[in-house]
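Notes from the 1:1 (GR / supervisor)

We went over the backlog. Supervisor wanted to see one worked example end to end before approving the batch request, so GR pasted a single chain during the call. The sequence is below; no edits were made to it. Supervisor asked that the structure be written out right there so they could see what the output format looks like.
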Amino acid sequence: MKYFGKKFIFSVSFLALAAVAFFLKYYIVAAFLCWPAFALNGMEITSYASVFQFINFRLHTVFLGFITDTTLGETYYPFTIALFLTSFAGTFRLEFFKPFGLTQYYWVEIMGIAGQYGVYLYANLQHPGDWRGWILPVFPMAFMTFIGYHIILDAIRLNKKGASKLNAESGQKAIDFSLPDNKGGMVKLSDYKDKNHVLLLFLRGDWCPSCHIMTRIYEKNREKFAEKNVVTLGISPDDSNVNAEMISRLGLQNILLTDSDQTVTKQYGGRFFTSPRATYAEGIPLPASVLVDKSGIIRYVSSPGKANEFLDPSHIFPIVAALN
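Structure output shown during the call:
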């Protein structure tokens, strides 16, 4: 299974160059080398969103803070602390996605953003005329503030949209559908009737880091689901080419279907919202999971606002065991 690509490798390379420059005491050069390292890792996060990217963010920001402190002769390392908080402001929710989800506890981002600027301002007041303290940390701080700000806005929008549940309910008959898969064929839900239970995973799109996390979790449990006679079908608003590229990039084997006009997502009560990132006609769907038994009856529906319900397959295994 793949976890990083070329941008990540270039990012690590820039970080290594920054370490060499720091060792040679070219502190300003080392600091500015951290900027492209950070930017490249940020560009990679929408493609893989794995623990490697999160660790990389932490290394870049803390190292840049340490360089700034060393340059200014600080011995209590305020810039290191500020940039450590920076590293959490934009990635903490992804790193701990199961307990925090999409809509809960967004005060974490608020505290991270406020904390980083509080320490940053305090540290610079000790060196009011020195440009290095103001400039060297500013790029990763601004980048993570931007990410954290949009996470907060998303959470507020989703809460207003009533993201607590789907319209589909356990016990209802599942609506049949036919959608193109990532291999160029067509898949009908009714093809699995009287043969397999089907777990439908509604995704937001390939741009979504949380959906990458979700698909990898279910990929790790693919054999367990197969043992319990469960077929997993991912449903995404992206076209088949994008889905095929995502399958290849992330090293997935589960089937990914294209619901380009999001008709099936709407039929199952999917929730939508708009944002500056929305490129789909209906808006961005919320991720969710729906279990359909082999007789065609819905047996489980996750709550979109509670990430642990659709990220943790252990919620589904007892239901499948009872069906079998």
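Supervisor's comment: The CA atoms of residues 42 and 57 lie 8 Å apart.
Batch request approved.
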